Amino acid sequence: MRTTRMTTTTTTTPPLLLLLSVLLLVSVSAFVEELDDSFMETRAADDIWLIKFYAPWCSFCKQLDPVWHQVGSELKSLGSPVNVGKSDATASSGLAKEFRVRGYPAILMLKKDVKYNYQGPRTKDGILDFANRVAGPLVRSLSSPKLFQHAMSRHDVMIVYVGATSPLKGNFTSAAEELIVHSYFFSAPRDVLPKEVSLPSLPAVLVFKDGTYSTFNEEVDGDLKTWINRERFPNFLKIDSFTLYAMGETEKFVLLALVKKGLCEKSLRFKNLVEKLATELRETYNRFFYFGFMEDSDYIRGLVMDDVIIPSFIVVNLSNDGYFLPLVAVETEHHLQEFLDGVLTGSIQAQGGNGAIQRVRRFIYDTKTTLQPVFSQAPLLFCFLVSLPLCLVTLFCYLCLKKRPSAYDDEDDDNGDGVLLAPSVGRRKKLTEKKID
């Protein structure tokens, strides 16, 4: 009897597991709707949509699939007004053109005919934060000290307008319309703010981060939107490639400690050195630098087009793909400060950049790094990929030379009937006709 029961269980369990898996997949997929070119005509005007554009052959799109279904499921369970969809950009090219999709996977949100592009990390938390931020009010009201403290506990950076209606508030709202994809925007009356916050006048715009705050001063800081864009990151943070790329829009340098994952003793010392400098000399360098550490150095390796030493320091200027390396070994906070001062004064020369020569070098480097794994894993395929364009270029040159008229052909004569004759034949014919005459 025992054996029979075991056999029965063994034979029935796989179908049950398969059925449960199918039901789970169907229930999760129900939260993500497939969209086609008719979407813009059939959607309701007030609907908010979070859409992933993909291509069937894109491996990154396939990696994002489970995350995307989790996003759809969680937004539905939370009662969010955001609808989640996906669209095959190769099949629904009209919809992809409407959203100006240039690469895959592309994540965009549509809210009241305004399209917002998500450029953050392809993680569930990152995408959910983007969806909740953009779907909510453009400027969120903080009407009590309790709400203000709650917001402070949830956000690393808070951009707050304080005061009544004014031209400054109009500029603040205009900046929020464009930068809501990156940051949260709030408004609050003066008595909601902590008592230690000192405001010389109202209205005012403040940025709260790193346990302190700074106030916008038009005479010193210039344009409000530029200032907000420059201040929207914490002064010190763990930086990934998405964050580093976004920092290029802030016009600030980024001092990075390139460290090993797991933070060995030396890596931890480099990280702490940057954090200490960012904290103690914030007033000195905050206007010019962000500070952070990076565990994945692939982005930096592609930037410098060479292997990088781990751990080490580097200053990156993402606005022009430039970078700075210390001239001497950095062992102390004083050494690190001298390095930053050298970047600001120009005594340390910038490397890299996006000039014509550098672009050619980067193209060669990218081609090399792309083909090298192919050569190591499939030498025959590598030889085919390299030889094919060479053969095509050779064939093209041969055909061009073959069709090029020669000097011999240019001297050909016309026999009067539209037929070209060789020079010698033409001369003999003329001599013969002369004798007859």
Shape, principal axes of CA atoms: globular
Tell me the β content: 15-25%
Highest-level CATH class of the largest domain: Alpha Beta
Secondary structure tally: strands: 18
What structural class is derived from the secondary structure elements? alpha/beta
Instruction: Please estimate the helix content.
Output: 40-55%
Which parts are unreliable, with pLDDT below 50 for 5 consecutive residues or more? 1-13, 20-28, 410-437
| Major sheet | 6 strands, mixed
The CATH architecture assignment of the largest domain turns out to be 3-Layer(aba) Sandwich
Keywords: Disulfide bond, Endoplasmic reticulum, Glycoprotein, Isomerase, Membrane, Redox-active center, Signal, Transmembrane, Transmembrane helix
Catalytic activity: Catalyzes the rearrangement of -S-S- bonds in proteins
Organism: Xyrichtys novacula
Domain Thioredoxin: 17-136
What's this entry about, in short?
It holds the Pfam family Thioredoxin. Keywords: Disulfide bond, Endoplasmic reticulum, Glycoprotein, Isomerase, Membrane, Redox-active center, Signal, Transmembrane, Transmembrane helix. With 437 residues, this protein is α/β, with parallel strands linked by helices.
Textual characterization of the structure:
By secondary structure, this protein is an alpha/beta fold. The protein folds into five domains: 1-26; 31-135, 3-Layer(aba) Sandwich (Glutaredoxin), CATH 3.40.30; 137-232, Glutaredoxin, CATH 3.40.30.10; 356-403, no CATH class; 405-437, no CATH class. It contains 18 helices and 18 strands. The strands form four sheets. A six-stranded mixed β-sheet has the order 11-13-12-14-15-16, covered by helices on one side. Helix 3 (59-77) packs across helix 5. 24% of the residues are buried.
